[in-house]
């Protein structure tokens, strides 16, 4: 066996699988499968297949997922930097396919970092509705926020909160919730030897307790009639069927929507028909468990709020449920700095008197000038100031009062010396037709890579696409084979590179 597995783990798997154990054990001799998932916010699966420089083979349970061949490095291609695909373990693409997300839904991804499943949900939302992506661990929310920016997501809020705080702030609010639970990770042993090193016989029980708490919070945040998908990448029954069975015993308004037993999905164990497993000896992918739970629609009980909760639910959230605010108003977010130096925000309903902050009027005027000149249309949503950074949020900001907010929405830019500087995520989320000025660089002659390395490029006027009535000088949406990747500034035949240092090709 290539991977040295703990003996108490192998004994448990023998007891679980009986005669199937040998096949299971043999699967550890195989190389793990690699995959990419097409980011349909930017490109269709058909178009990516036509463009793809590497062989792609469909993944049966995900219509936008493809296996990549061994040895291929999809992260080392300009299309990755243009956000055309997410590199994702094939089995990890299954849970979101079961969540049934529709454009316009309100979706909560409770354990979201680094954002694989959040970016998949965002693609299904197609920019409509709301995605709240949360992770408990502050460090991990950095990668989560960056991934949502790379993939051009416009309608996501990134939080760094405990699930019970989210449930208190959004009681019975979300149509769909994904819990991709922290787990003992046994299903990833073949792919990630660190998971094997961290595993102890007590690990599953420790995670099962955590999973129970997360499920309870999710139940309080789910709207009547809503759908909840619970997934893990482990084999332990106590973290899978066990966790779900215990939850159902305490929450009779939920039932399992069957997914198991057909296609690639194998049935779960015990008294829980309808839950599903992906086994590494049965499918081309790592081990996963999934359960789809549906709320029966019983109206949520009216609970007298604690005084603390009254503060949190300043009624704009109710407005959002019924009807969006008629006219967006700008809200300032007060910046707080955590021990690690990370900037995060807790929203406040008043206007900060901090002199370092630009005034709301100045920021909005500069933003208005920029979008008139550069886009010619106005992004929909609620403008939110976060220090001197402007975001367009899918939620009225009062909804985030008291919550540790990493990104209140789509980052569109910031103010420097009274001028509006567009953000990188504004560019990555734009289609070339949405910008008055754009330029496409080719992957075939090295110029796309030169741009991604931060180099200045000589670009003659005739290569630019400039909307009638606009001038070529100024911010240029730089695309790679027609797909937006970042900004440049064009003047007199030269393109000054605005691709951010932290994102560059190395
Ligand atoms: C399996 S990973 C999630 C992977 C992610 N869904 C994706 O597709 O990229 C589980 C995540 O749960 C987070 N986590 C751990 N305990 C948590 C809790 N109590 N509430 C929310 N998130 C938690 C971890 O930081 C970790 O990022």
Number of helices: 16
Helix content: 25-40%
Beginning-to-end CA distance, first to last residue:
36 Å
Taking all residues together, what is the mean pLDDT? 89
Portion of residues in beta strands equals 25-35%
Judging by the overall fold, what is the CATH architecture of the largest domain? Answer: 3-Layer(aba) Sandwich
CATH fold call of the largest domain: Rossmann fold
CATH superfamily label of the largest domain? Vaccinia Virus protein VP39
What layout of secondary structure does this protein have?
Layout: H1 7-17, H2 21-26, E1 34-38, H3 45-51, E2 56-59, E3 62-68, H4 78-81, E4 85-87, H5 94-99, E5 106-109, H6 116-125, E6 130-134, H7 138-150, E7 156-159, H8 163-169, E8 174-180, H9 193-198, H10 203-221, E9 222-232, H11 241-250, E10 254-257, E11 266-267, E12 276-278, E13 288-295, H12 307-312, H13 316-322, E14 331-337, E15 343-347, H14 360-374, E16 382-386, E17 389-393, E18 405-407, E19 410-416, E20 419-422, H15 424-428, E21 437-441, H16 447-452, E22 457-458, E23 465-466, E24 474-480, E25 483-491, E26 494-497
Parallel strand pairs: 5-6, 5-8, 6-7, 8-9, 14-16, 21-24
Antiparallel strand pairs: 1-3, 1-4, 2-3, 7-18, 9-13, 10-13, 11-12, 12-13, 14-15, 16-17, 17-19, 19-20, 21-23, 22-26, 24-25, 25-26
Helix pairs in contact: 8-10, 10-11
The protein binds S-adenosylmethionine.
Q: What does this entry look like structurally?
A:
With 506 residues, this protein is an alpha+beta fold. The chain has three domains: 7-295, 3-Layer(aba) Sandwich (Rossmann fold), CATH 3.40.50; 315-426, no CATH class; 431-503, Archaeosine Trna-guanine Transglycosylase, Chain: A, domain 4 (Roll), CATH 2.30.130.60. Helices cover 27% and strands 26% of the residues. It has 16 helices and 26 strands. Strands 5, 6, 7, 8, 9, 10, 11, 12, 13 and 18 form a ten-stranded mixed β-sheet that branches. A hairpin with a 2-residue loop joins strand 19 and strand 20 (419-422). The protein is globular and about 75 Å long. Residues 307-329, 334-344 and 346-356 have low confidence and may be disordered. Bound molecules: S-adenosylmethionine. S-adenosylmethionine (SAM) binds next to helix 6 and helix 10. Residues 24-296 form the SAM-dependent MTase RsmB/NOP-type domain. One of its GO terms (biological process) is RNA methylation. The active site is at residue 233.
